[in-house]
Amino acid sequence: VMDPSVLLLRGCLALLASPIYLLYFLGIWKPFCEKFFFPYILEKISAAHEKKVKKRKQEMFSTLPDFKSSSGELKVLEIGTGGGPNFQFYPAGCRVTCTDINPHFQRALERSMKKNQHIHYEDFLVASGEDLRQVPSGSVDAVVCTLVLCSVKDVNGTLREVMRVLRPGGAFYFLEHVAAEPSSWKHFWQQVYYPTWKLVFAGCCLTREIWKNLEEAKFSQLNLQHTRVELPWTPIDPHIMGYAIK
User: Fold this and answer.
1) Domains of the chain, residue spans
2) Tag placement on the chain: N or C end, fewer CB within 10 Å?
3) Edge-first strand listing for the sheet containing 166-177
């Protein structure tokens, strides 16, 4: 049963965000959000987030070269590439296929590509994490997914696609914000923010326990750590990061 104070505060927040709710019901918000607002705001949040996680990402992605195929090549598929904040961490010469459900990240993506010419860009596919049919089974050495599993429609479906496209022995790298401890104030505020946050930030869910999905997926090895990324005034502090091997 939902805490009455959560429902009350949700109502107050919805009132404050009522213009956005109105635009949503009129069918205006979603296309505006996808084309203009979300790519713009994500770039700003991403820049702040990247400063906080840069060292952790460097450490995490330092093992990527270990997953080169027997030919010495490293093929990486990135799900939900957005503006390409991960490119700087990829080893020189690796071949990257980018996917995103939102085609409107093109400008930010092109800027990242110009800055990171040490890698080869194979393709950009407009695709959701749950439906990567354009990518052949067992065709990539590593899949990367950062701050994406919060907003896919089906986490387990996305992980099944990850498993399908990875070659045996390939790795899945992840960094995701997750639900806070159920008894914490952070979790209380995540529940308050939940409906309005999801609407404003293109389907981003604050209370997913993604580590459970990863534990249930059929990876042969899972290296997962819980960590915190402190972004003032946001409810996305608890994170998980690591990699899993097929």
Assistant:
1) 4-81+91-245
2) N
3) 120-126, 95-100, 75-79, 140-146, 166-177, 238-245, 221-228
Choose among 82, 53, 39: nearest CA to 201: 39
The closest of 167, 194, 211, 201 to 44, measured between CA atoms, is 201
Domain 4-81+91-245 homologous superfamily, CATH? Vaccinia Virus protein VP39 (3.40.50.150)
* pLDDT value at residue 174: 98
pLDDT mean by block of 10 residues, the chain; 246 residues: 91 96 96 90 87 96 96 96 94 96 86 94 93 96 97 97 98 97 95 96 95 97 96 90 98
Length of the chain (residues): 246
| C-alpha count within 13 angstroms, C-beta hemisphere, residue 231 | 19
In terms of Cα–Cα distance, which of 163, 151, 154, 121 is closest to 236? 151
Structure pTM?
Answer: 0.94
Furthest-apart CA pair in the chain: how many Å?
59
